[in-house]
Known about the structure:
mainly alpha
Amino acid sequence: MSSRRNSSAIDAIADAYFDDLCVLSPSISLFLGAENPHGFDDYSPEGLKAANDLRARTRAKVDAAEAYGLTTSSLDETDLVTIDAMRERLGTATDLFEAGLQHTVLNVIESPVQQMRDIFDLLPTDSTAGWETVSATMAALPGSIEGYRESLRYARDQLGRVPARIQIERVADQSEALSQADSRFTTIAAEATSATAETLARELTVHAETARESFGDLARFLRTELAGSAPKNEACGREDYTLLSREFLGAEVDLEETYAWALDELASIDAEQRRVANSIHPGAELFEVMRMLDSDPQRALHGTHALQEWMQTVADEAITELGKTQFDIPEPLRTIECMIAPSATGAVYYSQPSEDFSRPGRMWWSVPDGVTEFATWQEKTTVYHEGIPGHHLQMGQASYLADSLNKWRRHVCWVSGQGEGWALYAERLMAELGFLDEPGDYLGMLDSQRLRTSRVIVDIGFHLGFKAPARLGGGVWDRAKVWEFLTQNVAMDRTFLAFELDRYLGWPGQAPSYKIGQRLWEDIRDESRTAAGAGFDLKEFHSRALNLGSIGLDPLRSALLR
């Protein structure tokens, strides 16, 4: 493993916080592949308050330990980074709690309903112990659902906060689907019948039925009790957006300047795409060229098995080649598993390796029902985003540093702008290193950049009520203008794009964190190059940065420029 570092008082505080947090949020342990005797997360007002109280106690301990360490000169660089990162993360979460934003987390992609559904994609079922964990987790879902309802009621009645109506309707539909006889829970119980002991299989069948009933109750609650109080306006406004942007970036940015920058960045990407498209098919319009690439049999993958094999080949080749000169890749990270997820949400995501690397890092592709054709020109850059040098190198490296980073730094301190910003930075880096020289693959990377830049524009513009571009008729952004803008700028199937629209309007601040995070990563790299002068070494910069784990972008800048 990595070189050993003696654990400090700051590490002890962070480790204790991690352990206590896993009790309050057992999904953390489940996600990491560790044993979990605590059921599932408590989304109730009491559960949220308990987490906030834990943050306050931990912050007080950090402050006291820092004061002692400064007096005794016992703090090392790792401690300084941990202190900065914990203050930023704990402080931001406390501000969200006090604003009531943690009580109304409801959207189509990353809120309690999806967490309770998707965790079962990750739970192993290759042993009796694994099936017992599945059963215990499923048994806990009704309690988690009831706590979630309590928080939504509390926010409505005590705080005057209710999520937007269209988000409630969409999540009610998702909950309804989970209550059906053919839901994921029924499928899991059926798999257990042939894979485990009869008693455990019967237990799972009962738990699956109870979970389905609870999701049905949640769907009815959302439609009949909550939707009537919900605002039609989906824009969250500046005050909430400023907090949410900070949550996803671990940094504060000038939102007006960022909006203007994104409009300019989109124009620059568009010009580069048109240049590349003309080199592929001279005289053809950009989106026409993209359709040609989609129909090119040399770039087509037929079926999920072919997609999985191709993903694995691309990921393995990147590990081999980058490990020669560009990155120091530890041996456990030279293995990644490319998987087709059992769910069918359309998402592509990465899951960390287990603590001992017995379960490797995995790239998951959740293919929607009925989708059987895939185009490599669009997706090669996605493999680099999720694999190496993207999330697998970044998150896997944090797992590998067990001897130098505390558990909180390795497993809990995930900041979207830093993590997703790195993965988007990694996509462009692969172009700079020559891995996307084929014009179609390069156009795919640019299209990924275009999508993420468009997200910045519509997300900030919509939620802050900024003026829309003249080509949309000007005026204030609304849902119709966002849809028109996306259809003009994003080469994505309209079914997927409609989901993306709901995602942006229901999860403010998250989607822009990719491109804004990439921008801040590039700024930090450029500042580091200026500071180092002729001695700047890109490989060494990447190693230093990745060895910090995922921390907020402001603490990252401080650590790399200190």
